[in-house]
Amino acid sequence: RVFFFLMIRRPPRSTQSRSSAASDVYKRQTIDGMLFDDKRNLQNLTDLIVSQGDASSSVLKYLHNTFVKPDFDIIVYESCARILSIVYSNIQNPKFDRSKEDFLSLLLNIAEQSGKKKISEYCLVTCFVHFLKDQKTCVTFLNNNGIKTITSNFESHSTDLQVMYYNILCLWLISYTQESHPYFVKLEYKLIQSIIDVMQKISREKILRVACSTFKNLSENHDAVEVMVDCGLLRIVDVVVRGNIKDVELKEDLEFLGQLLEKNIRILTSFEKYTKEIAAIQLEWSPVHSERFWKDNVKKFEEGNFYYINELVKLLSSDKPKNQAIACYDLGEFCRFHPFGKNVIEKFDGKEKILELVNSTNSQVRENAVLALQKIMLQNWQSIL
Question: Is pTM, for the whole model, over 0.70?
Fold first, then answer.
């Protein structure tokens, strides 16, 4: 009780800054430090809480009440968050599941807030790591839009070593659940690309280790491997392997990933990948719908009297806005890089259909239709860039 008092005591009224508050009260040892320093303390506290019966126990209730009350210093809130997170992660009793999920949801709500938060992004992501050690809680995290918090950290803290380490550590823990794999594949989240970007920006072994472990967990997911190839992971792996890596396990993971990517790169980067999407009548925003792809492969679309261009024109009438938007983009790129692209598109009545989509109610379709028309109508597109 003495330690709890020291931890939650408000700073004096004259104390305005975080640093001065720390020099007065918060330099004293807090419970979260005790729990991290000695696992026996954690187990003793956990046993005490479980013995009290449920989440309304005096200790948990005390911490919860402190966390939600206003006017405390950020250090107090962060201490409470860390204690609750590590304690909940250590409790396996189903009586506490509801309380555990409620507190995780509260942290996620704080993470989604704009402006100054009650606790820092660094504290939040370290708390999430404790929760995500349990696969059931991983599903709760995913269902409560937790991935949005991860992607937001990638955008705002991409060069912060500690935040990025724990951010990727969260993804590594999540990757053990099958429910998480679709999130890694969906291009809107850019999870794999973001991890690779961090590997390039912060080339530290702790980052490389957890990143490679995450990719290894995804190695049996064909779509995930495809995204790894598309995002250029093989090149990064080759560069890192030639460096001075001391960690034996990391070397083994890098070699494993290198062999995996080498094995799949020929298949996954071929023209067949594009035709597979056409055949499935399901286009996705991926690297095959890019300037580089069209520049390298435009001549292949002459096959079968421009069969696949005709199929793209048909997709302009699809009932799926994403198909329409991507088809517009691709037809514009075809016209941009093929010397007779404009004539071919007009032959299949593609221009007229794109004109109709300029008035689409879907903003993405409308924007790509306008861009495609500009490329069709202007000769030597590159000269005006």
Answer: no
Q: Residue written as tokens 């659940």?
A: 177
Q: What are phi and psi of 243, to 5 degrees?
A: -85, -175
**Residue 257, CA atoms < 13 Å, CB-side half-sphere:** 32
Ranges of the chain with pLDDT below 70: 1-34, 36-37, 54-57, 265-270, 287, 379-385
Tokens of 287: 């690297």
Residues 6 or more apart in contact with residue 137 via CB below 8 angstroms: 100, 101, 104, 131
CA-nearest of 280, 355, 289, 268 to 320 is 280
